[in-house]
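Dear colleague,

Thank you for sharing your sequence with our group. We've completed the structure prediction you requested, and as agreed, I am returning the results in plain text so they can be pasted directly into your records. Please verify that the sequence below matches your submission; if there's any discrepancy, let me know and we will rerun it promptly.
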Amino acid sequence: MTRWLIPTCLLALTLAAQRAGAGPAADSARIAELERKLDVLTQEVEALRLGAAADTTTLPAPRSGLAPAASKIYGVRSGVSIGGYGEMLYENFDRRRQDGALAGRRDRVDFLRQVFYVGYKFSDELLFNSEIEFEHAGVKDEAEVAVDPATGEGGAELSGEAGLEFAYVEWTRRPWLAARAGMLLLPLGFVNELHEPPVFLGARRPDVEQRIIPTTWRANGVALVGELANGLSYRAALTEGLDAARFSAAGGIRDGRQSGGRALATRPAASARLDWTSRFGLLAGGALYAGDSWQGPQPAGARLSARLTIAEAHARLQWQGFEARALYASGTLRRPEVVSDALGLVGADRLGRRFFGGYVEAAFDLLARFAPGTRRGLLPYARYEEWDTQEGVAAPGIEDPANHHTQLTVGGAFEPHPGVVVKVDRQQRRNEARTEVSQWNAVPPPRVRRALLLAAALGASGLPRVRSALLLAAALAVAAPHAARATVFLTRPQALALAFPGARVERRAFVLTAEQVRAVQARAQVKVGSRLVAAYAAWRADTLVGTAFFDTRTVRTMPAVILVVVRPDTTVERVDILAFHEPPDYRPPARWLGTFERRGLDDRLWPQRDLRNLSGATLSARAVTEGVRLALALYEVVAAPALAPAVRG
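Please find the predicted structure tokens below.
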């Protein structure tokens, strides 16, 4: 019934509009109202065709080093953008330490953080983006104020934290060149920039990316970011440096973060990152941080330098539901013995010359493999880490063995929605002093919190509890109804913004006549699926710069949504894939899509003629080509004649 309801309404409105305009005393207001209703109905039909690609609430793709929700501002046309996330953690500690002594740790549950993203897009080139974070369920001033008698400054240790995670203005001139200024996330590691819970594996963030790379690491400064050719991207920043007065042997450099609040800026620091992303789902890159960390006054008669350098290399592979990550980071502190003397550190508390850490982790989405098309995910995962915050102390034999850690994390994650995740895992923690305490972790949403807390508390430590947690996650996944899962790369507003930066875009709706249908099919050699067509004409001043068409094609059994931009000279400007529901291996790569550029509609525009065929993705190549040919024919037969008066005018 629904299938025929909207087309019938469209036809009735069209006939009514024609009759209204036929008489000499046509009511212009009534015609305008009918045209408005026609446009609303055509948008509803287009939304049904595009599916999740038309949904402006769909999670955007990560952009410029930011996680999906933080990237939301890049997908809006103008004005305000609001997003956010919340994260809660339950920790169940073992009764005994690694050496068998009583641990004395009490289980706890903590609403770790509630984050709000607030942005404003002034124009296609200029925007503001920010993250405001409340940690540990709020802030209460319950501590005594400590005052430094030398400076008269003081403060209270608060139970929670409220503050900015980042806040910057960005000016984008080209895809390969954008400038940022404000509070920035430093571009090191995976989690410092991509720290939303659905993005990283594990109930807790990797300890290497908290102890060696002190996530979340933010600082005031300026940066350049950009997307280069051949899958390369970069970020480079000049910011405030760390404060070595807060370094410690056990905590490493973590407490040296100034976090942009009344930060001492006597010694700036530079950081840079370069990534390469292949079309096979591989990302590889590295980052470097360097700067003098001594921000305080110099001792009498001496010049104290605490130059710090951190280098890290990382790689990630995503392929057919499998994901693996590896990261290694190493840092050096110049003349740590002098810094230790200045800070009054003695014995096992003295700073080391080096600190290092690395981890490898992997996960596999069982539902993506055994229930293709589902919107949900079920991912068992494992991670191994090793790190040391104190290595190379000048005096031999005084390094604290408790600062050298290893950790194995095994667990599972259930995703009822791409933006929601439930995680349960076991962390087997070890250090060389044998004083570590292993634990269970759970990250539940409110509705299943009690069930997961019960699951995390079941049984003694070991594999039986792992099995219980994974079986619980599997039961949740099986009990939930399946829905079509959309792999959405761009939404309709995002695709139009990328295709026509700085242009004014107008939507035109057409109801094809029988004669137009025959003409389009003869020209395209492709069947017209619907007589309802929407075209998006882009203008700069009074000049038409391009016309976009969205097309939905079934590849094998699942649909794909593509965007075709046609130039005024009836050649292809660009082709983008907005959504692809088939396995990733069948998705045409960007390089192949680029072969359509500047091509017109002729008999050679087919795979295995002038277009190279895609081995193993023949059906995908055919579907995209048909969509491109249909868009070119629609522009020639329908859109161009309708736009001609505006172009001439």
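Summary note from our side: The longest strand covers residues 79-93.

Kind regards,
the structure core
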